[in-house]
Write a structure and sequence with these properties.
The structure holds 3 protein chains of 3 kinds. Chain A has 5 helices and 7 strands. By secondary structure, chain A is an alpha/beta fold. Chain B is of the alpha/beta class. The longest helix of chain B has 12 residues. Chain B has one domain: NADH:ubiquinone oxidoreductase Nqo5 subunit (Beta Polymerase, domain 2, 2-Layer Sandwich), CATH 3.30.460.80. Chain C is an alpha+beta fold. Chain C has a single domain, classed as Cytochrome-c3 Hydrogenase, chain B (Orthogonal Bundle). Chain C contains 16 helices and 9 strands. In chain C, strands 2-1-8-9 form a 4-stranded mixed beta sheet. A 3-stranded antiparallel beta sheet of chain C has the order 5-6-7. A two-stranded antiparallel sheet of chain C has the order 3-4. Chain C is globular, with a radius of gyration of 22 Å. Classes of the chains: A alpha/beta, B alpha/beta, C alpha+beta. The interface between A and C is large, with 38 and 44 residues.
Chain lengths: ~140, ~160, ~400
């Protein structure tokens, strides 16, 4: 039990994040990267962006799911170790956004993998991204 | 004579079939209608003799019973000749322009993928821009193609 | 050791990662490469046919988040040409102002990304921090940091007040000082120069043949810039220089983008000083008369072209757009072949590609041993930084040196 509490505390205090773009226009991606930069500095919350899904706790996804990327998205999700959480950043990731009815687009991220937090915006401001991730971590505490 | 007029004069002088087929709509924009059998020689002349060495893109359209193709070529003075040609849907074949414009590969593949044109002489290669598992015979930019035509629906885990 | 020719054809990697780049290696060098595109294909052109012109304005802005104003303006210029509407001068000047501010933000973004790719993370942090100055200005002028939506048919939605002009001028002054510092770094820091010189070579002939565009082309001595050659918006009246460079490699592309920042600051100052009084938009009918137009625009990454055909209704008949990255991607195999594996990340970054950075998987086939690996981009980036460390390029020293 104590080990669980310690692990949970570590996870909340310093979540490792992997970012995946499943067909977005890049606007949300640059806001996600901007949250790393000195003004927003997401690293002061202990949040680190990692390159591989195997080390990550949280998958941050942007973009609607195009036909070409849906297998990649599923594979990245499967490669993450439990417990894992998914954050959909941007209106496209939440529901497909403006591209919902386009022929190469399936819908939002939750059409492929389960999502824990939805952060709308077109694009989502870095403050909203940080807010969403912190809220997700807060819900983990319970 | 303006530069655009000089260009149309040179084209009609070289190719009698272009007589009456050149139109200047505004500064730096010339529109020309060509039969698909003459397109290569016309583009070759425009590139090598008139300096139109930049192919901006190739637009494909679905117009009634035909497929229309517009080659947008530019020179260094910023003049663009929009070269239009047609092929009937029953025989949607055009020749590749790779011999004249080597960077045209992606633009021609796009015509094949999205409109169902057949570009004669285009080397084998991956689809662009559609995914490899896109069903054959489905050409999204055709006017009669609707998203419901996709038998393989894009949904959750199949 | 002979080179094995591997037929490159359609593949169906059922269980493997769908490859974005396939590299065929001989030892450390890339003998041949192959690129797969289409991951971001969403079907926008088809969607445009089903939307009204007004709805398309919203959609086309989202073709690319980094150059959203470029796509929106290029499209709207084509439609206004068909409708034979003349946009009032002041509207054009405001569009030009936003266009140049977008160029500034995009080039600063690129500078940071390029720094990140070679391990020079301090440059990344500094340039993106400076970029925030531009984002603030954009938010003040247009209401949003990204996807400005300043365009409407016939002109722009918002005017620029005198107070805002002052703030923009102040911001530009700060940015110019910082940019001059970055230019000094690029010209004088020998480690950086050695790292970028002769990497990703693209000769002038190849760049012409393969239709390279934007800073890619200008760094290979092609004197081509749509703002000067085929003027649109207010560019016919604005004096500025087209920056070319003769390095033909990644160093050249860095120099071109850094110097273009200075030119952009010049243009922004001119626009603010000479903005004519008057209306900011003209009336445009909802139904656009039948016709067609072809518009070109110098986006930060290169030439963006839009073709629009109208049919007299309130929905377009056809919208065709070709983003600049597609034009530049034809040259990528040319630039990768013959180079080191460790150079691949920075060469790809030097096109300033408009597809996502994490989407790319690199498949590597060793021609001599027959081995195959799949690396993701982050893995290749780390490999590249380590490899160059062994060659004597230590980005961590650079990180300590760059102090503002």
């Amino acid at each position: 039990m104590i080990l669980d509490k310690v692990v949970n505390w570590a996870r909340i205090k310093s979540p490792w994040i992997i970012h995946f773009n499943s067909g977005a226009c890049n606007a949300c991606d640059i806001e996600i990267v901007a949250s790393l930069t000195p003004r927003y500095d997401i690293e002061r919350f202990g949040i680190q962006i990692k390159g591989t899904p195997r080390h990550a706790d949280v998958l941050i996804c942007s973009g609607p799911v195009t036909m070409q990327t849906r297998d990649r998205l599923k594979r990245i999700y499967d490669q993450m170790a439990e417990p894992k959480f998914v954050v959909a950043v941007g209106t496209c990731a939440c529901s497909g956004g403006v591209f919902k009815d386009c022929y190469c687009v399936g819908g939002g991220i939750d059409s492929i993998i389960p999502v824990n937090a939805y952060i709308p915006g077109c694009p989502t401001r870095p403050e909203a991204i940080i807010d969403g991730v912190v809220k997700l971590l807060g819900s983990l505490k319970k | 004579m303006s530069n655009e007029e000089k260009i149309t004069a040179a084209l009609t002088q070289k190719f009698s079939f272009l007589e009456g087929k050149c139109n200047i709509t505004r500064a730096r924009r010339v529109w020309v209608d060509v039969d698909r059998n003459h397109i290569i020689e016309m583009l070759d002349f425009a590139k090598n003799e008139l300096g139109f060495n930049l192919l901006c893109t190739i637009t494909g359209l679905d117009v009634a019973e035909n497929l229309e193709f517009i080659y947008h070529i530019a020179n260094k003075e910023g003049i663009v000749i929009n070269v239009r040609t047609n092929a009937p849907k029953s025989d949607p074949v055009i020749k590749t322009v790779l011999g004249v414009y080597q960077g045209a590969t992606y633009y021609e593949r796009e015509l094949e993928d999205l409109l169902g044109a057949k570009v004669d002489g285009l080397p084998e290669g991956r689809h662009y821009p559609l995914p490899e598992d896109w069903p054959k015979g489905q050409h999204p930019l055709r006017k009669d193609w609707k998203r419901e035509n996709l038998t393989q629906k894009i949904k959750t885990e199949e | 050791m002979g080179r094995v020719v591997i037929p490159v054809g359609p593949q169906h990697p059922a269980l493997k990662e769908p490859e974005s780049f396939t590299l065929y290696l001989e030892g450390e060098r890339v003998a041949a490469s192959n690129v797969t595109l289409g991951y971001n294909h969403r079907g926008i052109e088809k969607a445009c046919e089903g939307n009204t012109y007004i709805e398309n304005l919203y959609l086309i802005e989202r073709v690319c988040g980094i150059c959203s104003h470029s796509h929106s303006t290029c499209y709207i210029t084509a439609v206004e040409e068909i409708a034979k509407v003349e946009v009032p001068k002041r509207g054009l000047y405001i569009r030009t102002l936003i266009a140049e501010l977008e160029r500034v933000h995009s080039h600063l973004l690129w500078l940071g990304v390029a720094g990140h790719e070679i391990g020079f993370d301090t440059l990344f942090m500094y340039s993106w921090r400076d970029r925030e100055v531009v984002m603030d200005i954009m938010a003040m002028l247009t209401g949003n940091r990204v996807n400005y939506a300043i365009n409407k048919y016939g002109g722009v939605k918002r005017d620029v007040t005198d107070d805002q002009k002052e703030q923009v001028l102040k911001a530009v002054e700060t940015l110019e000082e910082r940019t001059k510092y970055y230019i000094d770094v690029v010209y004088e820091e020998t480690t950086l120069i050695n790292r970028l010189k002769d990497v990703g070579r693209l000769s002038n002939e190849d760049a012409m043949r393969l239709f390279a565009s934007g800073p890619m082309a200008r760094a290979s001595m092609i004197d081509r810039d749509t703002r000067r050659d085929d003027p649109y918006l207010a560019y016919a009246e604005i004096p500025f220089n087209v920056i070319t460079d003769d390095h033909c490699d990644v160093l050249g592309r860095t120099i071109v983008r850094a110097k273009e920042l200075i030119e952009s600051y010049k243009i922004i100052r001119y626009v603010l000083k000479n903005m004519p009084q008057g209306e900011i938009s003209a009336k445009v009918p909802r139904r656009i008369q039948a016709g067609e137009a072809f518009a070109r625009y110098e986006a930060p990454r290169g030439e963006d072209v839009h073709y629009v055909r109208a049919n007299g209704t309130d929905k377009p008949e056809r919208v065709k757009l070709r983003a600049p990255t597609l034009a530049n991607l034809a040259s990528i195999t040319n630039m990768l072949d013959g180079g080191y594996l460790a150079d691949v990340p920075i060469v790809i970054a030097a096109i300033d590609p408009c597809f996502s950075c994490t989407d790319r998987a690199i498949s590597i086939k060793h021609l001599d041993s027959g081995r195959e690996n799949v690396l993701d981009f982050e893995g290749l980036r780390k490999y590249s930084i380590e490899w160059y460390k062994n060659q004597g390029f230590d980005a961590s020293k650079l990180n300590k040196k760059l102090v503002l």
